[in-house]
Amino acid sequence: MVPGRGAHEKSQENVLIAAGQAARDGRIHALTITDNPGGRPAMSATYLGLEVLKLGIEPLVHFTCKDKNRNQIESELYAMDRAGIRNLLVMTGDYPTSGFMGRPKPVFDLDPVHILDLIGKMNKGLEIIEPKGVTNHQPGDFYAGAVVSPFKATEAELLLQYYKLGKKINNGASFIVTQLGFDARKFHEVLQFIKNLAPQIPVIGNIYILPFGAAKMMNSNQLPGSVVTGKLLSELDQERTAEDKGANARLLRAAKMYAFMKGMGFDGVHLGGHNIKYEQVKYIIDKGEELSADWMKLIPEFDYAQPEGFYYFEKDLNTGLNTNKPINRSTLPLDCPVGINYRFMRLFHQLFFAPDKNLFPLMSRYYNRVKKPGKYGFEHFLKVIGNECKDCGDCALLDIAYLCPMSQCPKNQRNGPCGGSYNGWCEVFPDEKKCIWVKAYSNLKKYNEEEQLEKSYISPVNWDLYQTSAWYNYYTGRDHSALIKKADKPDK
Ligand code: SF4
Q1: pLDDT tens digits, residue range 92-146?
Q2: What's the CATH code of the domain at 199?
Q3: Domain limits for position 187
Q4: Cα 320 to averaged position of ligand 1 atoms, centre (Å)
Q5: Is 344 found in the same domain as 274?
Q6: Residue 5 located in a structural domain
Q7: Residue 335 lies inside a defined structural domain of this protein
Q8: How confident is the model at residue 468 (pLDDT cuts 50, 70, 90)?
Q9: Which of 16, 139, 222, 272 could form a disulfide with 217 if both were Cys (CB 3.0 to 4.6 A apart)?
Q10: Atom 8, ligand 1: residue with shortest CA distance
Q11: Which residue has the least CA distance to atom 7 on ligand 1?
């Protein structure tokens, strides 16, 4: 359900009529509601969730990071908890594109891993540290899930998606929904990956009733993260010459996807489409159930590999899907060349910042003697030249192969890439700038250290530190690295 812009629009009424029909069907467990999709304003997904709840069916509210800071996120969660909205699908969200009098300010104060962490803590009763002592709020009752995109063409992008998925699960994601795609082997891959990692987590496959117009946009990367290959596009081009303009073929394709997802072992499906009607959903479920007995026969029809596309597991030549053996990645070439800047930064870091080594103890003694940090002009100069530093003061350069998520990632992602990268390019600057996470993966892979990106959890920026010396904050344990160091050395 896409709420749309405005408060009394016909499309919104239609959404509610469809919701009522779905509620009466009994086989549909929840209705998903998008949160300012496409980075444009729309009616609040939370509010529409309330309306859906009144119809007697569970809403699954998309909860994105793009338009609200951490306090607004907390406020909205309290409102939802009080209203009985429990199911949330947490995601980064599209980059804001348009709004009143121009493009809005992108917020991205927290990333999805942080939001899941916050929700998990709220479910236990959020601990609030106040001058008078610590208080715990009443526990919340959220069931929060996350998304993952297996439809990535390059090794770095795919591994980074899976690394971030692991962090989402570790921070409380209770179910996973896949991105849009049409390649059966990829659906099988992501299901197998999650079942190997966390067998208890339900996985929901995404099915989109695909018309030619949307396919064309997806094929040219205008709907970030959704992948339609040239082969599928030409099939749709052919289908639209039929009398019904391809309407039946679209629905049958969706039903076949339902069938193979059920056969593979997905725990459910998410059905979507433009102006989707309840009758279409019903057809897909009925037909999909009928076809699911013979689902393996459908697999060859969904061979939509991306050119040179990377898969996590080796191919099973008998089924066209995957074996359970990961591909040997060590001999594969890097996605990006490793620049001189990285080599220099590595050396510089080893000398000054590697905990307890080389010049670290000296620097630490110096900074810990300083009562009040003074101007940090030299540090600022070096970091602006080398890393386009924005002086957040809670520096993540050490965690992301010396790339800055505050200046070089438009969505300020601190725990892994968003789902919008395409062939290694950033969602916001396609064909112009590589995603910093893809660069970080390549830099680290050069030294067999890429798995470092899988493990670290980087907390959100502490804005108390804004425009202060990050070196001072690092050596005196004021920034997020103190938590990482503590986690590395558990209390005896
Ligand atoms: S740099 Fe990567 S993570 Fe950041 S917005 Fe671009 S694609 Fe997304």
Answers
A1: 999 999 999 999 999 999 999 999 999 999 999 999 988 889 999 999 999 999 9
A2: 3.20.20.220
A3: 10-326
A4: 32
A5: no
A6: no
A7: no
A8: very high
A9: 222
A10: 418
A11: 426
Domain assignment of residue 331, yes or no: no
Beta-carbon contacts of 260 under 8 Å, excluding residues fewer than 6 positions away, are: 184, 187, 292, 295, 296, 298, 299, 302
Do 459 and 369 lie in a common domain?
A: yes
Tell me which of 6-20, 233-247, 253-267, 416-430 is least confident. Answer: 6-20
Q: Are residues 381 and 285 in the same domain?
A: no
- Tell me which long-range contacts 290-299 makes (C-beta under 8 A, separation of at least 24): 290/259, 291/255, 291/256, 291/258, 291/259, 292/258, 292/259, 292/260, 292/262, 292/263, 294/259, 295/259, 295/260, 295/262, 295/263, 295/264, 296/260, 296/263, 298/184, 298/256, 298/259, 298/260, 299/184, 299/260
Q: Is 436 in the pocket of ligand 1 (CB under 6 A)?
A: yes
Rounded to two decimals, the pTM is: 0.94
Q: Check whether residue 306 and residue 350 sit in a common domain.
A: no
Residue 372 domain-assigned (yes or no)? yes
- Please give the tally of structural domains in the chain: 2
